Amino acid sequence: MIQLTDQDVQGLATVSQARDYIERALTDFSVGKADILQRTRVDCGATKLSTMGAIWAAQDFSAVKSYLTVNGAFSFSITGWNTQSNEVMFTMSGQEVTRLRTPALALLAIQGAARSDSQKFTLFGAGFQGRVLAESLLELGLASDLYVVDVRDVSDWCFDISNRYNCRVQQQTPEFAVDNADVIITTTRSKSPLFDGSRVRPGTTIIAMGTSLPNATELDLWLLQRASRLIVEWRPQSLVEAGEVRLLLEASPEAIGKVVDLKTLFTAQEKWRRSDDEIIVFKSVGVGLCDTAVSLLLWRLWRLNADASDQSLDPLVTCPLQP
Question: Mean per-residue pLDDT for 285-313?
């Protein structure tokens, strides 16, 4: 068994590569070639222990991510197994997996749900995850304008990435940022709505990535009720964990029909967006299959970079997915 730190795998994969692995894992999930271990949590005082994972049978791989939350700070660990040999392949510190997973899933959701002419993006929360996601969008040329909303002064960072990617990046008020957005992304840990949902224009896509607590919501009820669709990763987990879903269904139980998960969309090969004037909300809480996919990607890339002369290593594997 090999133990890998975040430094061992840092910089090996791009967000786009992680997005491709997540999409393939979700596709396999939709046809029974993968399954998800729903997150479990236990609290004791100021400490919370959480576990989540998946079996990716199509890739002969399974992984479990465990993490502690102590006074709001996270510490991650991932164990990966070969399901053919029933052997532990590696343990991996999970910060780099989480750093890639969140923007990769957001990228998948944007490409699936946003209108094709979307150019103006708003980001609520320029923290660790928000910055990785923003820079990924700009690197791929998806945004002509990026409006950033944060409680801190992040104008220097906005100036830096504006020059680096040759696009317009501005720190703005919530009102301006919402009024002018084609896509709104939230990556905060706020437990209350970040903006007035009545200001959101028809045709806007909202990507809510910030919290997985049932008593917390970055979006208000008015926006959730206006949305034509509330897309989630996996309904069994999101109905329990997603504060936005719970808020909507407590107020309007009949709205359960517009809560659709990725497994359903992938199984039916259905478009995420059905018309240009729909408001689409994608709400992520994080599922173990996405972590499993990204950890496998990082493991394969690390093996490709490992010293082939080390006889203790198994034969190198290639990065492409198995058919």
Answer: 84
CB 241 within 8 Å of CB 200: no
pLDDT at 272: 96
**Residue 296 belongs to what H/E stretch?**
helix 288-305
Sheet holding 183-186, edge to edge: 168-171, 145-149, 120-124, 183-186, 205-208, 280-283, 229-232, 259-261
* Composition of the chain by helix, strand, coil, percent to 5: 40, 25, 35
Q: What is the longest distance spanned by two Cα atoms in the chain?
A: 62
CATH fold group of domain 102-283? Rossmann fold (3.40.50)
Sequence-separated (6 or more) residues with CB below 8 Å from residue 123: 130, 133, 134, 146, 147, 148, 149, 185, 187
Compute, in degrees rounded to 10, the torsion defined by CA atoms 230, 55, 52, 211. Answer: -20
Domain 2-98+288-305 has CATH 3.40.980.10: no
Its pTM stands at 0.92
Interhelix angle 15-30/288-305, rounded to 10 degrees, is 130
Q: How far apart are CA 25 and CA 12, in angstroms?
A: 20
Query: What is the DSSP secondary-structure string of 246-292?
Result: HHHHHH-GGGGGGEEEHHHHHHHT--S-SSTT--EEEE----HHHHH
Q: Write out the DSSP string of 30-50.
A: HTTS-EEEEEEEEEETTEEEE
pLDDT at 1: 79
Domain boundaries, the chain: 2-98+288-305, 102-283
